[in-house]
C-alpha cells in the first residue's frame, strides 16, 4: 500500500505510449484541444489513438465500445457550455463518454498501468526486432533510407491499442482484471499466465516496422492533445 500511494503521488500518467506529467496536465491538454476544435469528426491519427486508449480505461468500456468504434466526434454539450467526445459505432449508434471519467480515480489509474504493463511485457520482442535490422534500410512510412540506428523508431503497423483491444476480446479479459505490481520500469502484470498469453499473441499478430523518428511523429498528426 505504501508503494501504491507513493506511485500515485509522484507518478506520471501513462496513456499507452504517451506520457504526461500528471492527470491534471492531460485533462488541461484535452480541454485546450476541445476549445480550439470545431464540432465534427476527429481526423488526426494521434488524437484517435489517444482516444482509443482513453476509452479502454472507462469503467463501462465494453458497453461504450459496443459494436466497435467507427469514428470519434467532437460535439457541443447539450446542456451548458463546452464540448466533449462522442463515439459513432459501426452499427451507426452514438454514445457520449467523459474523458474525465476515463482519467480520474483508482480504477482508471489501474487500467492505465495495465496497458503499460502489457507494453513492457513485449519489450524483448521490440529489442530483438531492432537488433535484427540491417542497415541501410528504408523507412516504412516515407520510403527514405535509414543509415543510423539512432534514427530508427520501431512502429506498430497495427496500432498497439488495437492489439490490446483484440487480445482482451479474444481471451475474454477486461483491463481492470489485469492486476499489476511494481512501478516505473519494474511495472508488470501479476498473473504470469496472462503475461505469456499476451507475449505470444503479440508475437503472432503484431507487425513491426522500422521508421524514421521524424516521419513516425508526422504520421501521428500534429493537431492533437
Write a brief structural summary.
The protein is α+β, with helices and mostly antiparallel strands and 225 residues long.
Approximate helicity band: 40-55%
| DSSP strand count | 12
Which structural class fits the helix and strand makeup? Answer: alpha+beta
Strand ordering within the main sheet:
3-4-5-6
Shape field: globular
Which regions are unreliable across 5 or more consecutive residues at pLDDT < 50?
1-10
Give the rounded overall mean pLDDT.
Answer: 85
Number of domains: 2
Helices, by number, come to 10
Assembly state of the chains shown? single chain
Q: Please tell me how large the radius of gyration is.
A: 18 Å
Taken in chain order, the helices and strands follow as HEEHEHHEEEHHHEEEHEEHEH
As a percent range, the share of strand residues is 15-25%
Q: Major β-sheet, in short?
A: 4 strands, antiparallel
Query: Distance between the terminal alpha carbons, to the nearest Å?
Result: 32 Å
Keywords: Plasmid
Organism: Cedecea neteri
Protein name: DUF3223 domain-containing protein
Care to describe what's here?
- By secondary structure, the chain is an alpha+beta fold.
- The chain folds into two domains: 13-104, Nuclear Transport Factor 2, Chain: A, CATH 3.10.450.40; 110-220, no CATH class.
- Helices cover 46% and strands 20% of the residues.
- The chain has ten helices and twelve strands.
- Strands 3-4-5-6 form a four-stranded antiparallel beta sheet.
- A hairpin with a 4-residue loop joins strand 5 and strand 6 (94-97).
- The longest helix has 16 residues, at 106-121.
- The relative contact order is 0.16.
- Pfam families: DUF3223.
- This is DUF3223 domain-containing protein.
Amino acid at each position: 500500500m505504501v508503494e501504491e500511494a507513493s506511485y500515485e503521488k509522484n507518478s506520471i500518467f501513462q496513456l499507452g505510449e504517451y506520457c504526461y506529467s500528471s492527470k491534471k496536465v492531460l485533462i488541461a491538454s484535452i480541454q485546450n484541444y476541445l476549445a480550439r476544435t470545431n464540432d465534427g469528426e476527429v481526423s488526426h491519427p494521434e488524437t484517435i489513438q489517444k482516444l482509443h486508449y482513453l476509452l479502454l480505461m472507462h469503467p463501462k468500456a465494453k458497453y461504450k465500445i459496443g459494436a466497435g468504434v467507427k469514428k470519434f466526434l467532437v460535439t457541443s454539450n447539450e446542456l451548458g457550455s463546452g464540448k466533449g467526445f462522442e463515439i459513432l459505432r459501426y452499427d451507426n449508434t452514438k454514445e457520449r463518454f467523459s474523458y474525465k471519467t476515463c482519467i480520474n480515480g483508482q480504477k482508471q489509474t489501474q487500467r492505465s498501468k495495465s496497458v503499460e504493463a502489457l507494453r513492457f511485457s513485449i519489450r524483448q520482442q521490440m529489442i530483438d526486432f531492432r537488433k535484427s535490422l540491417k542497415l541501410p534500410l528504408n523507412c516504412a512510412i516515407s520510403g527514405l533510407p535509414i543509415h543510423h540506428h539512432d534514427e530508427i523508431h520501431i512502429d506498430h503497423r497495427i496500432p498497439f491499442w488495437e492489439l490490446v483491444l483484440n487480445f482482451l476480446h479474444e481471451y475474454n479479459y477486461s483491463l481492470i482484471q489485469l492486476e499489476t505490481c511494481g512501478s516505473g520500469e519494474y511495472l508488470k502484470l501479476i498473473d504470469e499466465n496472462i503475461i505469456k498469453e499476451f507475449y505470444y499473441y503479440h508475437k503472432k499478430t503484431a507487425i513491426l516496422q522500422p521508421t524514421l523518428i521524424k516521419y513516425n511523429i508526422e504520421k501521428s498528426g500534429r493537431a492533437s492533445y
